[in-house]
Write a structure and sequence with these properties.
By secondary structure, this protein is of the alpha+beta class. It folds into two domains: about 170 residues, Beta-Lactamase, CATH 3.30.450.40; about 150 residues, Reverse transcriptase/Diguanylate cyclase domain (Alpha-Beta Plaits, 2-Layer Sandwich), CATH 3.30.70. A five-stranded antiparallel beta sheet has the order 2-1-5-4-3. A five-stranded mixed beta sheet has the order 7-8-6-9-10, sandwiched between helices. Helix 10 links the parallel strand 9 and strand 10. The longest helix is centred in the middle third of the chain and has 32 residues. The protein is elongated and about 90 Å long.
């Protein structure tokens, strides 16, 4: 009879065991939510269902999984924007953090094919505060089941909330690990690779060039009169000069090249192939075109060494590039020296 608990093949114990397994063991959030939503629908005899996840940054409920809902309906009514102000019953559930019985499911856009609906919030507790992570919506072809029957869906919504919370924790952990990885390999001021990364890549490129018998160039750049820039404008001016040089380096190299902040006001370029000198000259010209920083022009002295002519080891190449850079600086800066005179 209408309102009575629907019959399902599984016992309550088997059904909730399946729900616990879905929440605890699934590696994919959508799979876990789809399983839990299906079990809630089975338990209550629902004809349709949907789970939305709250994007707190965008203040939006995004549709995650459904059953019994046509694709065109899901596409048209899938998300609920501006949750804080929306009149959609799903938004009401988020704001109140309490289940909601709907006598006319037409008010719930994603369940408009159903007659009645039962909406549950996905709630977790963080430091004693209830936090809404989303909603579980179940639609019925006829009258709502009895209240006691409806209450049986709440543990399934709780498990869905746990699944969402676990997914968020994993995602945040991955993002944090990625952030630490970037921090370990990049210079925080310029965003370029740091010296540790540059040295490792130089070793790899020299080994590859030796195996394949191909050319490789290593260039070192040093900002001319950097101490004068800092004296004129302080550390802020020095940092600005470093960032501007780094931007030119990053934007002007080829995809196969690597640029790094090597030390203080020094930068490195690793350029596989025979065109390292061309790339280095282009970078020096681009930097010379930068606007002055606190009235001081920004130029660089560059020295370049090539494998295998100038050296076959990282140490030999770096020594030649350093000597060449010093020669460029002694000659007035703003230029490239391919080899130091003592190396010719």
């Amino acid at each position: 009879m209408p309102g009575e608990r629907p019959l399902h093949e599984r016992s309550d114990g088997a059904l909730f065991a399946a729900a616990a397994a879905a929440a605890a063991r699934s590696d994919d959030l959508d799979d876990a939510l789809a399983e839990l939503l299906g079990l809630a629908g089975e338990h209550l005899g629902a004809s349709a269902g949907a789970v939305h996840i709250l994007d707190a940054d965008q203040d939006e409920l995004a549709l995650a999984v459904t059953f019994g809902i046509a694709e065109e309906v899901a596409a048209e009514a899938g998300s609920v924007a501006s949750v804080a102000e929306s009149h959609d019953p799903l938004a009401d559930v988020i704001r109140s953090r309490h289940p909601l019985e709907i006598d006319d499911a037409g008010h719930v856009s994603v369940l408009r094919g159903a007659a009645t609906a039962y909406l549950l919030p996905l709630i977790v507790r963080r430091e004693g505060i209830e936090v809404a992570l989303g909603t579980m919506a179940l639609g019925f072809a006829g009258p709502l089941p009895r209240r006691q029957t409806l209450l049986g869906a709440e543990p399934l919504a709780d498990l869905a909330a746990v699944a969402v919370e676990r997914s968020l924790a994993v995602s945040m952990g991955s993002e944090r690990a990625e952030w630490f990885d970037r921090l370990a390999h990049t210079d925080p001021l310029t965003g370029l690779a740091n010296r540790r990364t540059a040295d490792r890549l130089l070793e790899l490129e020299v080994a590859r060039a030796g195996r394949q018998g191909v050319a490789l160039s290593v260039a070192l750049f040093e900002i001319d009169h950097f101490d004068e820039i800092q004296r004129a404008g302080g550390n802020a001016a020095g940092d600005e000069a470093l960032r501007r040089v780094a931007q030119i380096l990053a934007e002007s190299v080829r995809l196969v090249d690597t640029v790094a902040r090597y030390a203080g006001d020094q930068f490195m370029l690793l350029a596989p192939g025979p065109d390292g000198l061309i790339v280095t000259e282009r970078l020096v010209r681009g930097i010379a075109g930068l606007a002055p920083v606190d009235g001081k022009s920004v130029t660089v002295s560059a020295g370049i060494a090539g494998f295998p002519l100038d050296g076959r080891t990282t140490e030999e190449l770096m020594e030649v590039a350093e000597q060449a850079m010093q020669s460029a600086r002694a000659a007035g800066g703003g230029r490239v020296v391919a080899r130091a005179p003592s190396a010719e």
